[in-house]
Every structure is written in C-alpha cells, then in structure tokens.
UniProtKB/TrEMBL annotation, chains A, B:
This is DNA processing protein. GO terms for biological process: DNA-mediated transformation. InterPro entries: DprA, DprA_WH, DrpA_SLOG, WH-like_DNA-bd_sf, WH_DNA-bd_sf. It comes from the Bacteria. Residues 359-410 form the DprA winged helix domain. Belongs to the DprA/Smf family. Gene3D superfamilies: 3.40.50.450, Winged helix-like DNA-binding domain superfamily/Winged helix DNA-binding domain. Residues 120-330 form the Smf/DprA SLOG domain. It comes from Agromyces hippuratus. Residues 334-358 are annotated as: Disordered.
Length: 419, 419
C-alpha cells in the first residue's frame, strides 16, 4: 500500500467532509488527498509542481514527496514518464515543498474547512471552471469553495475589478455596470476588496444576481475584515473561493496569484477604476496574457483613480467600455480570442518593474512577504514561510540588502520599515 | 492672347495686392488668377476639378471655363492630355461651375481680400502646408490667409478640436493641453468655434504660442461673431485661413470640408471632448482616412460631452491621450503612419449615416444648405447656390421631399422647418 493511500485512508472522513459528493473509490480518495496535500505545500502557481503533475499525476507527485524521494529519484520518475527536468530544479522543488509537510497542520486545515462548510472542488468536477485550465502548469490544484459550487462554473461570467481607493464616480459606474450585467445573465467575479470590487459584489447581490469572490488566503478567514458581512452574503447565494487551504494568510504574492484566477475563471475582465500602479492592472495583465477580452472604463484624465484605466487603453490595447451593454459585447464579441499580436501584451510573471503591480521580482515579493520588520527570521524559517529553497532565499536577500529593503540582525533578517 | 491671360492682366493690381511677394512673370500671374477664379466657382474639395487641374493645370482648366467650352471639348482636351473623363461627368462639372462665373463678384472679392489684408497662398509657396497635398484631387486650390503666412507652414503642428458644447472639464483639459503643446514647440490648429476650439486657440495665445484657425467661410467675415476679438488676436500672431474667397458664407457643407483641412494641415488630430454625433468626429474621420495620428481624450462615461471621444477610442482605434506629453508623443511617435488596417477606418466622404457628423448624403447637405425655410427657390437658383447641376439638385430634392425635409411651393422649393 502506497504512502499516499495509507495517509488518504486515515483522512477518509475529513476528506469526505469537504467534498459535495460521496467519494466513489480509492483512486478518487487518493487523488483528493494528493491535490489537497500538494496545495498545502506549494505556493499558488508553482510551475514545477504543475509540470510534475502533468507528467506523473498528482498522486505520484505526492507519493514522491511523502516518501522523501531524493532529487535523483524525482528526476528519474519524471524522465521515465516522458517528462524532462533539470536535477537542480528537482532539488529546488523538493527543498521548498518538503519543509512544509506537516500532517497535523494539514489535518487541522481540513477540519477547519469542514467547520466553515468549505468544499474542495477539483478538475473534472461539474463546478470546476474550465477557464482556469488555460493557466497550464500554473493552474490551481484545487479550489476551496464556500457557498454554491455551481456559481463557480457559470458559463457567462465577467470580472469587474478595480482600485481599493475608488472614487464616487468609479463606484457609481461599477454599480450600474454590475447591475446591468446581472440583468444580462452574467455572474460577476471579483476579488472581494474594498472599493470597486466590493461595489461590484454588492450591486450584483442587490440585483439578485450571482457573484463570486476569489480570496488570496484561506476561505475560513474573510479578508478584508470589514467585508466579513459582505462575504457572508456572497456565500449565501454565490461563492467565495480560494486555491489556498484554510488557515493560509493572504500575502502579497498570493494576491498577485489570486488575480490570475479572477482573470482565468471569467470570460473577460473589465477594470473600472485603477491608479497608475494599481493591483487591478495585474489582473488585467493576466487576462491579456490569457488572450481574454480586456476592457477599461475611462474617467476624467484629471482623476488619478482612472490613470490605470487610461494606461490600459493606451498601452495595452484594452477596449474602451462605458456601460454594461458594451461590457457584455466585449465578452460575447470576442470569446477566447487569441492573444493580441498587435501591441505587446504584458507578461505579468516576467514584468518586474511595477507595470502590473509588482514592486520587484516575483521571488523578492515572496521573500518580502515572509519577512517581518520586528522579528528577525533565519533563512530556513524564511524558506519555509515563502515556499522557496534556502539558497534561493539567500540570493534574493542579497539583492534586497543591496537596495536596502532588508537588513541583517544577529538572529536573522529584518525587513526595513518604510514611510 | 488667351482669355485667362487677358482677364489676369486686367486684374494684375488686384491680384498683386493679395500676394506677399511680387508676381514674377506672366505665367505666375495667370496661375494666380486661374486658381483664385476656380476657387470662386467650385465648392471645396470638388474632385472633378481637382482631376482636371492634375491633368491640364489650373490655367488650362480656367481657360475652358472662361471660353465656355462644351463638354465635348472639355473631354477632348483632358483625354488628349492623358486624363480620362466621362462625358456626363464633364457636362455635370461645367453645369455647376459656369453659373457661378461672375467677374464683378470675383473682382469685389479680391478687393475685399486686399482690404482686410488677406493673402492668397498657393501650392509651391514657402507657407503652403504640404500636408494638404495628401488630399489629392480634393486638395484646396489655394488658401486665403490673414495674419502670418508662415504660421501655416509650421512643421510641428497639432489639431485640437472638440465640441462647441464643452464642459468645464473639457475646457480645463484643453487649456492645459494647448499650453503644454505650445511649450513643446507645437503650432495649435483648430476651427475657431466656441467651446473646445476657442479654448485651444485662447490657451495657445496666452502661452505666447502660434495658433491657426481654419474657417468655413471667407476670412473677411469672422465666424462665429462672438469670436471676432479672438480671431483678430489670432491674426496678430498666427493665422486665420480659409480656402473660400472673401464674401463666401459658411455653410454646413463647407464646415465639413473645412474639417478635412484641419486634419490635413496638421501632423495629428486630438479630439478633446465631443458628443456622440459631434462634428469633431468628422475631423477625426478625415485624420484617420489620411493615416494621420488620431488621439482622443477620455472623460467620465457619465458625461455625454465625452461620448464621442469614447466612441473614437472604442470603434476607430484612436489613441487614448491624457495630457500634452502624450499628445506630443502621438504625433512624434507615429508620423505619417499608414492608414490602420486593423479596424475599419471610416471614410468621411462615403459615410452618410451620421457617424461622422453628416446628417445625410453630401449632396443632400449641400442642397439643404442652399434652401431657405422662408424664401422659395427654384432649381436653377439652388444649383447655382450649391454648385451642383440642376439635374442633380432635382434628384436630391426628390429624395428630400420623400423624407419631408423639403416641400414644393408655387415659386420653387422650401426647406421644412424643424423643432
């Protein structure tokens, strides 16, 4: 009996509790366990893990991890299954996943999920949003859902996203747009944040429509706190979703990765109001990279809250949309269009100069997330927290030290306080 | 001695008075006379006359007209010179130009031009704006200029146009844009109208920049009346320009043709505020048809005064521009780009459904211009007024009668009063 199956059997009850349908057989049980487990050790969008699952499946990948396979074995298994992997990559992957294997924490996260009524939706389930599969090796391993699972798989869906620091103008336009799209049968997808996101959800609820909120942390803790009531209302008729297990904290890296799900799970994305460096531009970048229709609502050029929208219109070939009808047309008129070859479509993953909301390189974001300004942390601790190898963390720390973002301390590293 | 030369010699004094440099020789004298004369009998942009001039030159074309050449002779002369022309086209051309030959009126217009200090600038002159030659057979025959002729030939120029019914927002943005472009060395081209145009000129003057206003009627009569002081100030440092002779009234047709000059005489066009069917969209259409950079300033989607700008962004691939720097970049970054093949570029001449400011077909606009709501006019009178053949006028009147735009009267035709 494989390690995976033994562990899965031990958690059969806990795993059954987070699935909406009875578990059919042992192979399904193992698959559920493997995906839940891998989702708890890897950061969202881990491409190496995605490739491994593509080649050998989630169960075999989890097996290697649980059996503490050496990098050589990992490489060997993948190569024999037809994959290709660099030994250093394999070592790096195992080094960042292994320290996070913690059976106690995993079991507690499953129990917490059951307690809040969260279900794990997996590829192949009726409710699985097919659009996220287009993320390829960066697709989520599973999605934790509170509310109506079917809300997630809606065929007609559109993301309405924008700045937290929205203006009255932006909120007004969002309210009208969301209500108008609900009238046209669309599910409204957004990020549950203050400002535009919140208004998009609220207006959809007020119009008795379906709305889905993607969170950057576990669905057991509603974030932001001020939206606890709103998110609870969304659960009642729509869905609150995350690829992270219960208990996971929303880090900046996870917000950026969450944005890829918003873009991928909906047919098209509209940015309603966004500052010049707003995080919503990151969502827009993901939509563009996926070749999904991207719209931007213009506003006064004198309003900094519209500067990001104008940037999308000007630099990224976003379509100018001014009302719900045009937003519906955006999605209906250009379903799954090929990525535009006309102007350069930003690659959110490679963009490290802040154009799409990233202050620095993806790895730097993750290390900075893991650092504290008050408690010094050593490299091993940081590596575990951010899900990277100790040597990668060291490399990043060196770079961050050079630009005075981090500082050494007798007990480890500190993030330098700003402003 | 040709008729043209005899007539030109008789007007040598009057023609010298409207030229900035002494007339070099008889052939130049004839050319000046011929272009001034043809410009007084044909409506702006008359393509048949443009073709005739391309093939046989302005002097020969004027000769045929003055000698009352038959259509057969007209066809023969053009054909022998390598042109090709349909006999019915020739007849139609002669029929619309001949009734307007009026030596007394022509002389009075020249005297009036001299009186107000207007000069006739012709192709080949240093001040001639080369950009208008790209209008091909629709290029102006000459330009009447009050002010500094050299302002007209500025190499760095940009058109700032927009709605008469501008908002405070639109005027504010226009003021900033115009001043910022003057700071960057641009000449500001516009149409002298109320609203955006006026603000563009005013702000350029306030920044001690150069600005050029293209009028739809003769430069002896400033239109609109309320801009008499503004236009006089433009004359002092820039130029007020028209292709129509002194005394010519600004008709709707001429406004639309004037718009092609604004687009053609500048390197690029920016629409700052425009209603959904604003006349500035006509200027934008000309700019796009000429392959010139076209920019649009976004505004609140809740403002009808920005709806035309959003339409340009959405449907016509205009570039979103939010400040002077981006406008300067628009022109500098895309000098004389080829007409976009990406989205359909509107052809202002063929668009008769109002998208670019034309309420009906070009001919209908001209006939409606020539009609009065109170004084009935017969077909011959209308044909002379609008520069079309009597039979074309009859055809158009039939169509307009069918849609109740015109009505028959014992003494001729009346335009039906609206609103």
């Amino acid at each position: 009996m494989s390690t995976v199956h033994r562990e899965a059997t031990g958690l059969r009850g806990a795993l059954s509790a987070v699935r909406s349908a009875p578990i059919a057989d042992d192979s399904e049980l193992d698959e559920i366990f493997a995906r839940a487990l891998l989702g708890s050790v890897a950061e969202p969008g881990d491409g190496l893990l995605g490739r491994a699952i593509d080649v050998i499946g989630a169960v075999a990948a989890a097996s290697l991890l649980l059996d503490a396979a050496s990098p050589a074995v990992f490489v060997d298994v993948l190569t024999r299954a037809g994959g290709s992997i660099d030994p250093r990559e394999a070592e790096s992957g195992l080094d960042r996943w292994s320290p996070r294997l913690d059976q106690g924490a995993f079991t507690r996260a499953l129990e917490q999920a059951a307690r809040v009524g969260a279900r794990l939706v997996l590829p192949g389930d009726a409710a699985w949003p097919d659009g996220v599969d287009e993320l390829g090796i960066h697709a989520p391993l599973g999605l934790w859902v509170r509310g109506r699972e079917s809300a997630l798989g809606s065929s007609a869906s559109i993301s309405l996203v924008g700045a937290r620091a929205a203006t009255g103008y932006g909120e007004h336009v969002t309210m009208e747009a969301s209500a108008g799209l609900v009238d046209r049968g669309f599910t409204i997808v957004s990020g549950g944040a203050y400002g535009i996101d919140g208004m998009a959800h609220r207006s959809a609820l007020a119009s008795e429509g379906t709305t889905v909120a993607f969170l950057a942390g576990g669905v057991d803790r509603f974030y932001p706190m001020g939206h606890e009531t709103l998110l609870a209302r969304i659960v009642a008729t729509g869905a609150v979703v995350s690829e992270l297990p219960c208990g996971a904290a929303p880090t900046k890296w996870r917000f950026l990765q969450r944005n890829r799900l918003i873009a991928a799970a909906s047919e098209g994305t509209v940015v309603l109001e966004a500052g010049f460096r707003s995080g919503s531009l990151n969502t827009a970048g993901h939509a563009a990279a996926l070749g999904r229709p991207l719209g931007a609502v213009p506003g006064p050029v004198t309003s900094p809250a519209s500067a990001g929208c104008h940037r999308l219109l000007r630099e990224y070939d976003a379509v100018c949309v001014t009302d719900a009808e045009q937003m519906a047309e955006l999605v209906g008129g250009a379903r799954r269009r090929a990525p535009s070859g006309d102007r350069a479509v930003p690659d959110p993953a490679s963009d490290d100069r802040g154009a799409f909301g990233m202050a620095s390189s993806p790895d730097a974001v993750r290390v900075l997330d893991a650092l504290s300004t008050r408690s010094p942390r050593d490299v091993a601790d940081l590596a575990r927290r951010c899900g990277m190898t100790p040597s990668s963390v060291m490399g990043v720390l060196g770079g961050l030290e050079a630009v005075a973002e981090v500082t050494r301390h007798p007990l480890g590293w500190l993030r330098v306080k700003r402003g």
